[in-house]
Design brief:
The chain has about 525 residues and is mostly beta strands. It has one domain (about 20-514): Outer membrane protein transport protein (OMPP1/FadL/TodX) (Porin, Beta Barrel). About 10% of the residues lie in helices and about 55% in strands. The chain is built from 7 helices and 23 strands. The protein has helices at about 20-25, 35-40, 145-155, 160-165, 175-180, 200-205, 400-415; strands spanning about 70, 75-85, 90-100, 100-110, 115-130, 130-140, 185-190, 190-195, 210-230, 235-260, 265-295, 295-305, 305-325, 325-335, 345-350, 355-365, 375-385, 390, 420-430, 435-440, 455-465, 470-485, 495-514. The strands form 2 sheets. A 14-stranded antiparallel barrel has the order 1-4-5-9-10-11-12-16-17-19-20-21-22-23. Mean pLDDT is about 90; it is low at about 1-15.
Length: about 525
């Protein structure tokens, strides 16, 4: 397995802290969230059109509207997560309310040229939910969570007094570890080294009991305005301006305990807690075309620009340590080293671009949709996950900031790759009732072949349409395989947990045409 490099450069004052490579995936590796109709057919919308979800996938699909529509989409998520760590399995559950697209589509038919029309869309959507809970635990005789703090301090060139002052450059990690004696300096052969207390357990060939618990919530919400035109019922084009709103928060707890019977080997236990939140906003664009060479065939192409985000992270960490030799218990918070202020970091992030091609076959494609009997459609999408980039928000960034973000961006390029996603779905109409099925697969974003990661979606639903009123109900079952790192070290391979998540999504859409 390839070594996963951690950037440990420190920038700015005690109120700043480093982003991690994981942050690059948070805003790019997720499945489409659409109306119940769209979710039932696997999220396919690259060439299909006729749904407000086209605002977020291929805005050219709005060109099929010639009347108005309002839609509202509540949803409920059922999260079941199994984590495997050090040959031990753990299960967790966390359910949450969610929200699909809601808003208006206004279609404008041309009185004098019936084969020409235009449409605008004003929509709001929770494009992805961050709601989740991960828990895993196991015995580790290879490495300790605390070693990352020892590495950081050893390579920082700061003195203990500099780190432990009220404006510490390392308030969330090395400072609290030094204050609680989780790490300390020792003399080995006349050479001063930095050592973590749990390393004495590992040096003796004993194992540490490790316990990781993380709860996340929030989501990416996007307000969007789109415009589309229909030319001769053959060419459709559209454009969307999106304003993503980021709201992510996490609570992480990590506990490490001595499992040996030796009561005088320096270390007994520690518990580390990290309260983290990201808020921000930005903008992006989506462009698309759909070509209908025959009445029953639709071909689509769309491209999404990167999302340009201005983000603010806030953070507080606490640490409690119990030692055996000398005997003592110590605890502190990062606020002790930030003048009692909540930690804050402001930066910019560019989420990656994506492009897709699509094709649809509509059975009995006629202008009167009541006579249509169904469709089958497929999308192929490429997402450039390695294209995520971080940068400073300062007008004149310092040299340390420039070096840090260059190093972080290189880590992103080295550890992530572009991935292909596939979606396919279909619908059959029985007068006012519709039945739908769908499937989607989202490819692995990691370059390391040892990491098994993917997302698969299986979905089905029913719809009812009559006299301008419609209601759709869908169940979409997502199977997610991923990896999670409790910590990362620079001088050795990193231990990680494999995550298997089963997520049920119950989606309902209610709408009216006017």
């Amino acid at each position: 397995m390839k070594k996963y490099i951690l950037v440990a450069l420190i920038i700015g004052s005690g109120k700043t802290f480093a982003q991690l490579p994981d942050d690059a995936l948070r805003y790019s590796w997720y499945s489409v969230n659409g109306t119940a109709r769209n979710m039932a057919v696997g999220g396919v919308m690259g060439s299909l059109g006729g749904d407000i979800t086209a605002t977020y996938v291929n805005p050219a699909g709005l060109g099929f509207y010639k009347t108005g529509e309002f839609v509202f989409t509540p949803a409920f998520l059922l999260n079941n997560t199994k984590s495997d760590f050090r040959e031990v399995s753990t299960k967790e559950k966390k359910n949450a309310l969610s929200l699909g697209p809601m808003g208006w589509v206004l279609g404008f038919a041309n009185k004098y040229k019936p084969k020409k029309s235009s449409a605008i869309s004003i929509a709001f959507n929770q494009t992805t939910s961050f709601s989740g809970r991960i828990h895993y635990a196991g015995l580790n005789n290879y490495s300790s969570f605390s070693e990352q703090f020892a590495e950081e301090f050893a390579k920082s060139n700061y003195t203990i007094d500099e780190v432990l002052n009220t404006n510490s450059p390392l308030p969330y990690s090395a400072a609290i570890a030094l204050f609680t004696y989780l790490i300390d300096t020792v003399s080995v052969g006349g050479v001063t080294q930095v050592k973590a207390a749990p390393e004495y357990i590992l040096d003796a060939g004993q194992a540490l009991q490790q316990d990781f618990f993380k709860t996340t919530k929030g989501g990416i919400y996007e307000f969007a305005v789109a415009y589309a035109q229909n030319r001769d019922d053959k060419w459709f084009w559209g454009a969307t301006l999106g304003i993503p709103l980021i709201n992510y928060s996490s609570n992480t707890s990590f506990t490490e305990t001595d499992t040996s019977s030796n009561a005088s080997n320096s270390f007994k236990s520690f518990t580390y807690n990290d309260e983290f939140k990201t808020l921000g906003t930005g903008f992006n664009g989506k462009l698309g075309i759909i070509y209908r060479p025959k009445d029953y065939i639709r071909l689509g192409f769309a491209v999404h620009t990167p999302s340009f985000l201005a983000l603010t992270d806030t953070r507080t960490t606490t640490l409690s340590t119990t030692l055996e030799n000398p005997v003592g218990s110590y605890s502190t918070s990062s606020t002790q080293f930030t003048n009692n202020q909540l930690g804050e970091a402001k930066y910019s992030q560019t989420a990656p671009w994506k492009a897709m091609v699509s094709a649809s076959y509509v059975f009995r494609e006629v202008e009167n949709v009541k006579k249509q009997r169904g469709f089958i459609s497929a999308d192929v999408e490429y997402v450039n996950h390695k294209g995520s980039r971080f940068s400073s928000q300062n007008e004149v960034p310092t040299s340390s900031e420039i070096n840090y973000y260059q190093a972080l961006n290189n880590v992103v390029k080295d550890n992530y790759k572009g991935a292909f996603n596939f979606r396919v779905g279909g619908e059959l109409k029985f007068n006012t009732i519709m039945g739908r099925l769908g499937f989607a697969y989202y490819g692995k974003p990691y370059t390391d072949p040892a990491f098994k990661a993917s997302q698969m979606l299986l979905s089905g639903g029913l719809g009812y349409r009559n006299k301008g009123f419609f209601i759709d109900l869908t169940y979409a079952h997502k199977i997610i395989k991923d990896v999670n790192f409790p910590y990362r070290l620079q001088d050795r391979l990193n231990t990680y947990a494999t995550i298997n998540q089963q997520q049920g999504n119950i989606v309902a859409s209610v709408g009216v045409k006017f």
